[in-house]
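Recap for those who missed Tuesday's class. We walked through two folding examples back to back. For each one, the amino acid string is listed first and its predicted structure tokens come directly after. Nothing is annotated here on purpose, so try labeling regions yourself before you check the end of the notes.
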Amino acid sequence: MRVVIAEDNVLLSTGLELLLGRAGFQIAAVAEDAAGFLTAVREHRPDVTVVDVRLPPSFRDEGIRAALQARREYPGLPVLVLSQYVEQQYAAELLATAGGGVGYLLKDRVSRVDEFVDALRRVAAGGTAMDPEVIAQLVQRAGDPVAALTPREREVLALMAQGHDNNAIAERLVVTDNAVHKHIGNIFAKLGLAVADSGHRRVLAVLAYLNAGGQVGDR
């Protein structure tokens, strides 16, 4: 699995190369700035990318802007963003891009090697790997965002939080799949989760539920 890394900190980029190499990834290229990253993506067409939010020359948002540009050029390109801070606007924009795996982790997660490698594999496979702190800030609203849900919608959301898919939820509630689909659509709308990919919206909805005090029971 080929990886392109965009990271200007030599110590961190070298560390990423070593740990990913040991985990079985092939490092196709390491770029120090946004232009170099885009060039490497165009040349190598990697299976997954790891991008720092802040890159030279201004160290503001060059990295994530480059990641979004790369996904526009190559729809579905898996991108795992690393940052020291939660950039809400860009995190939401990244989630809103349809297709392909996306991730947004705070840099202290890199020190948890197993978690980081698992997250990168999940993103490469088309999944989502969002730092809980990132999602928590994305779903913050005035008051309790779950309070507007009906009792049935809360039941559906609670089962989503337990990891059940739509079919399993339908079986547990003795309703049709179409009914579950409708309830989930209402949940997304009431929580204001207007992003393109329903898989990402499930992640955000579940975190909203947990932030509001919901408890995940036994599966």
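Example two. Treat it independently of the first, because the proteins are unrelated.
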Amino acid sequence: MTATSGWFEEAFAGQTLLGILRGFDPGETVRLAELAWRLGVRCVEVPVQDERGRAALRATVEAAAGRPVGAGTVTTPERLHAAVQAGAAFTVAPGLDPELAEASRSAGLPHLPGVATPSEVALAERIGLRWVKAFPAAALGTAWFSAIRGPFPGMRFVATGGMTAASVTPYLDAGASVIALGSGLADLLNPPITA
């Protein structure tokens, strides 16, 4: 699976953010994706755990003009199939399922699985993955990232779950390569109106 790991190296080159656009209708998802792209966030992820999400993924891929749009919460073969049908560039999952990772790779989609323990990181490394999603990052804390780098210097971590704009610098400093912003990104793109 090392070939797919190289895809993430290229996709995230010079990037520190991944946008997660969860729970919006297709029109709002596209609007937020376009704002993110204008701000320089190259990669966005649209979770596909229901039909609304799948429709939002299809609309975002269509609007992306070649930018990488990933399918998130890919936890079953059916969701992987939906990601492929929608034209997703990569898949993301909250946990590590080696069979699903291999199925995604076989479908031509790099896979970013979730990990939270050294055993899961070791398994990901053993099956050839070099990029993983540390989830839930806010619960793991910055110390987790600092500690995990020692035994796994070749792994790259996308900090996901509970991240905000204020999390970016501390988590990057602790060893995360990329910070995934979900509601935190929506807050940045839609700041509250103040009197």
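Answers for example two:
Strands lie at 17-20, 44-47, 69-72, 90-92, 111-112, 114-115, 131-134, 156-159, 178-181.
The chain has a mean pLDDT of 94.
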